[in-house]
Amino acid sequence: MQKKRIIGIIVICITAFINNGIKAQQKQQLPATHEFSVQQCLDYAHKNNIKVKNALLDYQIQQQTNRNITSQALPQVTGAAGLTDYIDIPTTLLPGIFLNPPQPGTYFPVQFGTKYNANGSVTLQQTLFDGQVFVGLKARKTSLDYAMKGVEVTEQAIKINIYKIYYQLAASKIQMNIIDANITKAGQLVHDTKIMHDNGFAEQIDVDKSNVQLANLQTEKLKTQSAIDNGYLGLKYLLGMPVNDELVLTDSVNEDQVKQDIIDTGYQYTDRKDYQLLQETKKLGEFNIKRYQLSYLPVLSLTGVYSKLAQRTQFDVFGGGAWYTTSYIGVNISIPIFDGFAKASNISKARLQLMQTENMIEDTKLAIDTAVAASKRNFTTAILTLDNQKKNMALAEQVYEQTRKKYGAGVGSTTDINNAEADLKTAQSNYISAMYDAIIAKIDYNNAIGKL
After folding, report:
1. Please, what are the averages of pLDDT over each run of 10 residues along the chain (452 residues)?
2. Superfamily of chain region 32-72+130-296+341-448
3. Are the C-beta atoms of 41 and 166 separated by less than 8 Å?
4. How far is the C-alpha of 198 from the C-alpha of 51, rounded, in Å?
5. What gap in Å lies between CA 370 and CA 368, rounded to an integer?
6. Cα–Cα 20 to 30 A to 252, which of 138, 413, 423, 443?
């Protein structure tokens, strides 16, 4: 019975521990609510987007690579120690002429040394001149700049998508407001048609048609909301935000915001992150050529050694016996003479790679010019289209209201009001599409000129 009680207590403790762990884990995983402006979204993505994290890790990796390069110019100190027990002391044969009396033509065995030998040494190596090391030291800052530009290019690509999705979701509020207004109108039409039917001025089929229109609008709202929800999921993914967290957008968008700063006065290639990255790539290519060119020069280094040696016939190397010192310093020079044209091949290869980078820079310039021209034209067209669609939507709204009034007065048909409603929905859909297109066009243009 006592054993069963102990087992029961243990089971209760384990169960309580597991339950507490589950509750703590659930508490840690509770969804959070984030109310973000577009800038807060960018800041959040900078800290949490996996691609940005990896790009920042690449920068840290380059920092450690630079430390490795620096170490090649610093003193290298090595310590060594050893203890040898000669089970059989090495034997050497000496000529018989050393015997007394001499025995020319013969050899006799002699053992040199002691059974136990201990040694300790410290070795210093210092590079005095190595062209490749010095080029590596000069290229450290450029290497870090290149890694940082890689981070910025990654962030820029994510930034573009965040802007596009964020402002499209912000504009979707306008779309939902239009749908809600249409549902209200459709509901009012259903109400009016029922009254007209009850008074004998409309048929049952008219009531059914108005109900169908209301149901279609409600279905459209559900589909639109589903698309918006998926848009939020896509934005959360770009931000690196947990799916279960709630994201609330605090920035809004309207026509005036879209039309602000329509056309910039000019642009510079150096404003583009991808162009800046290629410039850093070119600098690294130039360093690479110089590194191989300096490999033709001799390498000069300094060596210093300090060692202690103890020889014992008994295993008491740390006793009172003597330790014999050896020390020296030396200068070494390594002169390359012939390597089978390997250095010449490396220089030629590095020059060809630099030419490729220069070609990519020229291609990027052309691509930037093309992107600016195209995005500028698209943005101008998108603004004109937005204005036209807004006027068209307002006109369709007037036609619908007039048709509805005529229908309510009994001088219009359900066909007229259905056609007016279809035209209004088409105009509204075109307006929303024009708004989305204008948002995308503006973002593409600002990105093309490097001002996003």
Report:
1. 49 56 55 93 94 95 95 94 91 88 88 89 95 93 95 94 93 90 89 85 84 91 93 94 94 85 77 95 96 94 95 81 92 93 94 97 96 93 94 93 82 81 90 92 92 86
2. Outer membrane efflux proteins (OEP) (1.20.1600.10)
3. yes
4. 65
5. 5
6. 423
